[in-house]
Amino acid sequence: MAKITAHLTISLDGYVAGPDQSLENPMGTGGAMAMHAWHLGSSDPVDLAMAGVVMAPRGAYVMGRNMFGPVRGGWGDSDWTGWWGDEPPYHAPVFVLTHHEHDPIELTGTTFHFVTDFDSALEQAVAAAGDDTVTIAGGASAVRQGLERGVVDELLLSRAAVSLGAGESPFAGLQLTPTRVEVQVSPNATHEVYRF
Amino acid sequence: MAKITAHLTISLDGYVAGPDQSLENPMGTGGAMAMHAWHLGSSDPVDLAMAGVVMAPRGAYVMGRNMFGPVRGGWGDSDWTGWWGDEPPYHAPVFVLTHHEHDPIELTGTTFHFVTDFDSALEQAVAAAGDDTVTIAGGASAVRQGLERGVVDELLLSRAAVSLGAGESPFAGLQLTPTRVEVQVSPNATHEVYRF
Lengths: 196, 196
Prior knowledge:
The structure is a homodimer. Chain A is α/β, with parallel strands linked by helices.
């Protein structure tokens, strides 16, 4: 079966997005954008290497809806096709978790499928991936659903020197003791790989 | 004026103690004790060096009441004198934050003073320390009070591969962007020093 991984950029206080997420502030208020400096313009070799790990080819992805876009509630007549333009960086099927049904969106190299529950999304991703890795590409809720089911093999946390004070935690309610198998340090983040 | 530092052992999800703290489980339930493996029996040289940093002589300490002991509410006729026996490792005045007045406790090398508000405790600690460092020795609430006042110069976080799922955060409500100035990695913890 496919290996299942996940990655998140996380704050000192364990949040991946701050409070008050909105269309204008999709990461929430506070220093949430600053957390992402490690992959937004950093030329540090460690950051570049970790970005390379994150963006390495995968068999399929599972993604929370907020990772796909800022639209909340029903899709209505939204023509949103993701943050990434005509050719998203995934080049694989991406299964987006949403309570609201939506037809697939086929872009160059990547098709977004919309699925209403995590188990079904993961099952479809594993089937699509074959022997390749399936990655849960965030956000907090999608990764938490993987962690609480015990299906995540490896989690990469890129931790920035930012506290958000409140927000969304991938570990909410979960008491886990993974093994840290790798640490890479850059000026922008401490990148740690945990095995479960 | 004295430099003001703080140190905490912290979980992946940013908590220094788990939920349901009690006399039997002073750190709360879950893996909270496992978080402290780095200074409870570790012979790893990085852990030993960081423990040496934490226990290096200070001019004075400020300490939350839960760090001093498990007694909650009024002191009553408690004869509790701290976790450490007749000779605590501090060898300096320790100002313990408590809502309930208590006479000083003088032990070999260390006197515990009980103070009902943070500002007064810090003021007394700074006065007692002279040119030496004042350290806020935890827990979450005491360090948070220092952080929100902007008086902490350096914070050491020793982060263990444990998630607690809920608990006490030193950053609750605080949106900060300190500078990480040091990282030391052991098998038991990632030790990071932040400057504010």
